[in-house]
Model the fold of this input.
Amino acid sequence: MTTKNEALAAWVAEAAELTQAKQTVWCSGSDAEFQNMIDLMLAEGTLSELNSQTHPNCYLHRSDPQDVARVEHLTFICTEDQADAGDNNNWMPIEQAKQKMTDLYRGCMQGRTMYVIPYCMGPVESPFSRCGVEISDSPYVVANMKLMTRMGSAALRRIEEEDTFVRGLHSTGELDPERRFIMHFPEELSIMSYGSGYGGNALLGKKCHALRIASWQARREGWLAEHMLILGLESPAGETHYIAAAFPSACGKTNLAMLIPPEKYADWKIWTLGDDIAWLHMDEQGQLRAINPEAGYFGVVPGTNRKTNRNAFDMIKQNTIFTNVGTTEDNQPWWEDKKEGAPSTDWKGRPYSEDVGPAAHPNSRFTVSAKENRAYSNLAEAPEGVPISAIVFGGRRRELAPLVYQAKSWEHGVLIGASVASETTAAATGEVGVVRRDPMAMKPFCGYNFADYWAHWLSFAERTDKLPQIFHVNWFRQNDEGEFLWPGFSENLRVLQWIIQRCKGEADATETAIGYLPVEDGVDIADLNIAPDVWQSLISINDDQWRQEMNEFGDYLDSFGDRLPAGLREQHEQVKAALG
Ligand code: OXD
Ligand code: MN
Done:
């Protein structure tokens, strides 16, 4: 296979010449091709088969121990003008970045196969979808891209018709962290990645294209590319509302998107549309609609069990690629908090020992097609997407943020999104558990200056009066003993119910300086055994703490200088004034 698109053919030839690849293979996306990749990795020892009785078609990949997460300090946005990338991104001049990458790529695929992977982010027939081509020397990337995107011939046909695509060049290189870079060139819609095989650094359709490059495209074209799950909440009467929710990496997006209602609400249903990325467009009626650009899940494994996420637990029993989990005596995958079985080998392949632990890397992952999820929505493939009733922001905060609150307006909601802060997790290299600012959960993913990004968000208010309501949630409040105050997981349904009631104007709320909070009996917790004082602390705010938070947030906003939109400054002033 090759292509009739001249620009694509020329770029592929150029990459083959630069990397000196032994051969070029165009990926068709067929099941046989996927199986070939698996067989190849089994033969070369980069993949092993798991217990085929208990886990048919499940495989384990052990990565280089130095290559287990996103590398934000090695990720760059390269624009003509540094101010366009903003202080929220690392920046390098375009020429310097290209020179650096060209030097790394030169001859890097000698003796290896270069795969050309055409893919479509979003349903192939959706006008909201966007295509790309990844060139990679990694069969692991090919297999994962098959699960995570609409990959192969149909995507190539669309690229040939549209004559536009995002270019991503990837090589695993030597896996040397000193020779590892993830470069983005949004002005020319291209990505260059070298030295890592980890999902967020190497599956270029995901974070690099569907968030960093797409956020840039979205601003130009009037839509939003966001780090959000999409779910449908169906009531017993059969009415479904769609919610898009942004939480930082490894803060439970996959669990919320696949939630199974608690017994008391067994006649309610949650349908999954996506667990990580949403592309939001306004339709002709002024309604915001969402598609999930991805076709699979690249989810965090540890903590997944029958209770926390039964749908995911069952989903990853077949047709799944595991990366960096441990194994049991009889070769089943094992991870911390699986709550069954026992580890015998750790993620590095060593005999498991508690003193050396954990068995699974905290950022170990599963890759699986979305079709394996029994809660997969039948509208997930709809080209027009689904109408969004509510947008929810959230973070992992031990204190401060109440369980749930609602913005007073779209503009106030943008301020709430911009003020998201969260404790860092193992999804990126660096210290874990440190609170950092993570506006809209997009700190690692916004491909341009946050000040311009907030202005873009604010601009939606001028385009329609049908915007979704905006909320903030925090499932992670703790007491002084480090115990969680809210049970989370299935019980989060109760908060989602309140959110939808508020959207429909059916629930009372208490107005506070930071937004509307539930009244005492606003959320049904009667059977949850939450002490009245604990419940009060979950649905009220501490003015002193919030004054301090707003002062610190003000300093953060100031760091964006003149570019900060006046509308956001105004919202901040209003909240500060209301706090007194
Ligand atoms: C992810 C992440 O893998 O956010 O989704 O790191
Ligand atoms: Mn993510």
Observations:
- The radius of gyration is 23 Å.
